[in-house]
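note to self: dont lose this again. the chain is below, predicted strucutre after it. 391 aa total, dont forget to put it in the shared folder this time
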Amino acid sequence: MKLIIAGAGIGGTTAALCLLEAGFEVQLLERTPTIEEVGAGIQCGANALRVLKHLGLLEQIIPLAVQPEAIEFRDYQSGDQLYRMPLGDDYARRYGAPYLHIHRADLQRVLLDALQQTAPDALCLGAEVAEVVEAGNEVQVRLGDGRTLNADGVVGADGARSRVRNYVLGEQQPRFTGNVAWRAVVPADRLAAGWMECVGSNFVGPRQHAVLYYLRGQRLANLVAVVENPDWTDDSWVARAPWSELHAEFAGWHPMVQAIIEAVDKDQCFRWALYDHQPFDNWSTERVTLLGDAAHATLPFMASGAALAIEDARVLARALQQADSLADGLQLYQRNRMARTAKVQRSSALMGHLYHIDNNMLRRAAFAGLRLAGGREAFLPEYDANQVPLT
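---
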């Protein structure tokens, strides 16, 4: 069986590797002519890393990443700790894989190198999907340059503005959430010694928050800063924005936040609007399905977008192996993914509201309640896409 995957991001490339391992023929399409180092840091818990461990890639990833001791939530001005989620070695022992901070480009390179070794001709660059047509026992994918490719099935891993999803569900425009994210990566040697322990620090305040953590063996410091801004709608990862606006929006915040903002290259500030979708009730036709943000665009407030796509990839391959037909396999896949991904979508949106509570006393009380409840995301690492029963 031959499958075409649209989109060579983390989810699409992981899906290619999982499907190849399961014995399927794969062609991975990427609309850009080159794979460039874009983006910044991402967070991967055991639920994602167990899949990469299954693929034999975890030992390559660990040296490129940082294993934080904890995720901390702090008051935006005083720095008082509101909530702490321990990680480190105890987390790795409990869940069978670590929690890592890694540069998106580093993870993508490991995945693409593995694909090159496994199936050197699988990746096709400069291949933008223009149209998908199911015709009898095959699917035709028509590209923007006029070429037509044929396969038994298609997987749309082409992001929140998915062309493949438009075929499956009709025109579905993502919803602007009113949140805008800044991102920047800074050489750690620009920051004072002891600037931050090896943790992820989340500073939360009225209608905005800032996330700080290390990358690449603590040689880089990553900043993601989210501000409520209903007027900004550019969702490009590569849209530069004035440093002066970032500086002004976080004036008066804790010195740790101020320090990383001061250290940013003034022409290397990027800002993009955050979009999501309400959970869909279907992802598939008989021969076409969706994966990652194309299926369940998720706000980043639980740092789970990439992890969910990696889970999707493994469950899809297992479902297609288990089922008697492609159509049955696609239904088995979506049936076993929809409830989980919808839960993360809803939980991520709720966490964003928690981070941005206007009143300081109410915000502290909300985090105290979270602490008493025993944590915000225990259900995330417990999920094992390698072994969860598919029914």
